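Researcher: Good morning. I'm working through a list of sequences from a screen, and I'd like to move beyond sequence-only analysis. For each chain I'm collecting a predicted structure so we can compare shapes side by side. This is the next one on the list. No need for commentary yet; just the structure.
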Amino acid sequence: MIVASRFIPSLKTTKIYVGGILTILVTVTYLSFAYYTDRHVVITEYNIHSEKPVEPITLAVFSDSHMGTTFNGDSFGKYIDVINNLNPDAVLIAGDFIDGSSKDKDIISACNQLRRLKSKYGTFFVYGNHDKNYYGEERTRQFSTKEYSEALIKNNVRILEDEVFPLSDSYTIIGRQDKVESNRKPISELMKMAPKDSFIIDMNHQPNDYKNESEAGVDLVISGHTHGGQFRLIRNVGVLIGANDRTYGYEKRGNTNFIVSSGISDWAIDFKTGCVSEIVLIKISS
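Model: Good morning. Structure tokens for this chain:
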């Protein structure tokens, strides 16, 4: 019996084995779910009621595709079909459509796909902090900003850089330059060019000018950039350090509605925990 017991694992050793196996199973399950959440795009709907007399409008919004991360230029086409099936009156792309590591062929294909978008008023775009390759990631991307802009315009996308655009009798879109641009105009200056009785939609890639946007009287601010925090444990770090005013979702400050999308994809790491990938549908009415 003494000799045989040397070959029987102790209770302590068995606990270690079981604990290790459970840890591996939980980790694999968790990462699998995070991978699925990252790549499974949902539709998130918001209904906004305006005190201004406006015609009802439906906006389809997406941001942060960072082309080439969770889908390439060709497979991006399935999301064009999804957006078209939502029957939007306008499509808003809130920045970081591509980034510095996007391949040229994916940029070209993705821009060409945008031509298929169908809406009453068209497709509008603002640059994010990755679109113009501010970070110098030249490993795969050779496309210049000029070529990128031309590809968007050629495919019926209107680029707004500190511009005010009359969408309809009821609505005006302000498209802002990204925060990284040193010559970006303050929202108060842009608001002077907007009709006072119009419902003002402000496209601002980074959600970090809430105080000024609210004081200026903007009705709706649409942003992306944060990816919904991407990881549960660090999702609110941006707010805590003052980099962002909000990480995700809806908030109202004064008379201004703010919406931050978690984006249709991710950046750098193909996992999302505690958030989703999404296309946003906004319905506005009186």
